[in-house]
């Protein structure tokens, strides 16, 4: 997966988290990324990588997100590898 496609998938992951206030709040608490940071830096590859990292630590989030966007979980892992810090 190329970095642009990975960023697009990560933005979809952010949208997925935005529909679950509890998960979004937990992401912020664990990552230190505030809602203001997300709004200002939603296109930052490092923030996008952090979002994918957050989803990838929970089987429930992986399953829910992949079902929602109709992808194989391997694509999620490939997207994470295409972003910084992999």
Describe this structure in words.
By secondary structure, the protein is an all-alpha fold. It has one domain. The chain has helices at residues 3-18, 21-31, 35-41, 45-56, 59-69, 73-82. The protein starts with a helix and ends with a helix.
Question: Could you list some keywords that capture this structure?
Answer:
86 residues, 0% strand, globular, mainly alpha, 6 helices
Q: What is the fold's blueprint, element by element?
A:
Blueprint: H1 3-18, H2 21-31, H3 35-41, H4 45-56, H5 59-69, H6 73-82
Count of individual beta strands: 0
- Which value, in Å, is the CA radius of gyration? 12 Å
Number of helices: 6
Helix content, binned percent: over 70%
Order of helices and strands: HHHHHH
Mean pLDDT across the residues is: 94
User: How much strand content do the residues show?
Assistant: under 5%
> Given the helix and strand composition, which structural class is it?
mainly alpha
Spatial separation of the terminal alpha carbons: 13 Å
- How many separate domains make up the residues? 1
Largest sheet properties: none
Low-pLDDT windows of residues: none
Global morphology: globular
Structure at a glance:
By secondary structure, the chain is mostly helical. It is 78% helix and 0% strand.
């Amino acid at each position: 997966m190329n970095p642009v496609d990975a960023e697009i998938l990560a933005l979809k992951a952010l949208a997925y988290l935005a529909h679950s206030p509890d998960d979004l709040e937990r992401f912020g608490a664990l990552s230190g990324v505030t809602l203001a940071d997300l709004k200002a830096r939603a296109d930052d590859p490092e923030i996008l990588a952090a979002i994918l990292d957050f989803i990838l630590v929970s089987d429930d989030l992986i399953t829910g997100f992949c079902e929602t966007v109709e992808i194989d979980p391997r694509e999620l892992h490939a997207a994470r590898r295409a972003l910084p810090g992999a």
